[in-house]
Amino acid sequence: MTFIARLIREPLVQFLLIGVAIFAIYDLVASQSEPPRDRIVVTEGRAQQLALVFAKTWQRSPSPQEMRGLIDAYVKEEIYYREAIKLGLDRDDTLIRRRMQQKMEFLSEPSDDRLAASDATLQSFYDANQADFLIEPEVEFQQILIDSEKDREPAEVRAEQLLRQLRDSSQDVDASELGDATLLPYATRLSSVTRIGNAFGENFAKKLATLPAGEWTGPIKSPFGLHLVHITDRRDERLPPLNEIRKAVEQKWRTQERDQFQQDEYDRLRANYEVVAPLNETAAGSGAE
């Protein structure tokens, strides 16, 4: 009897051979079975979120049947999403890429503690950015329009006549009844030069800021015609104290802090990447003839 034959007759060797055969058969069967299935778990929290969105839309809670439909729709969405990711459909879709960017930027929002400013911080920020908080000049006035398009005497002549009439203290006249009909207001309450310029034109607003108060003057030209103007009140450009505009200052500071925080976060992520791209000159010249 050969050595190999004697070895095979040993009980321990036979046991090992049987074990190898079993593992071989198991591996063969396992390789022919279905691959493991992806698992989708709809948590209680997710179900509550689906129900909450439904309630906000329809102003009532979903019925059991509607709830089942919401869950089925969520599962369908999740399946298609996973299959699309497997196919790489997200890689070249600009809308998806931008949406992912927005989500990452949202996740990089600073905490409330980071955006809480002390009085000293706000004061320092205010002192360094006073030009942003200047309140521009304001004017309150009355005006009379002389329409340049009217087929009567020249508008300049009519304006001079009306101005003399208004300045003649012996005449008791209602100024609001003078001039030509217009949709422009006769009296304008205290308003910024910018707001006045939006209504009457920029040149009119600039000229208005130079006129004396307390008397009728003019005429001033605007896109609507000529105007006689009576300044009733004026406020010069001023820098309000911090306590008067604290909310505006704090909002501007928070915006600046948020932008800086997100920029720092981007720079941190950017440092992990090596970017290879054409030089600006090359890219700009690629379309040249």
Describe the protein in words.
With 289 residues, the protein is α+β, with helices and mostly antiparallel strands. It has 4 domains: 3-32; 44-92; 106-134 and 240-270, no CATH class; 136-235, Chitinase A, domain 3. The protein contains 11 helices and 4 strands, in the order ααααααβαβααββαα. α8 (193-200) packs across α9. It is elongated.
Give a brief description.
This protein is α+β, with helices and mostly antiparallel strands.
List the helices and strands and how they pair.
Blueprint: H1 3-8, H2 11-32, H3 44-58, H4 64-86, H5 94-107, H6 119-128, E1 138-146, H7 155-167, E2 187-192, H8 193-200, H9 202-208, E3 216-222, E4 225-235, H10 246-270, H11 280-285
Antiparallel strand pairs: 1-2, 1-4, 3-4
Helix pairs in contact: 8-9
Helix tally? Answer: 11
The name of the CATH topology of the largest domain is: Chitinase A, domain 3
Characterize the quaternary organization of these chains.
Answer: single chain
- Number of E-type strands: 4
What fraction strand? 5-15%
- Principal-axis shape: elongated
User: What is the topology, as strand order, of the major beta sheet?
Assistant: 2-1-4-3
Contiguous runs where pLDDT drops below 50 for at least 5 residues? none
Rg, Å, rounded = 40 Å
CATH architectural label of the largest domain: Roll
Overall residue-averaged pLDDT value: 82
For the record, give the distance between the C-alpha atoms at the N and C termini, rounded to a whole number. 91 Å
- Classification by helices and strands: alpha+beta
Order of helices and strands: HHHHHHEHEHHEEHH
What is the CATH first-level class name of the largest domain?
Alpha Beta
Largest sheet: 4 strands, antiparallel
- Number of structural domains: 4
Helix content class: 40-55%
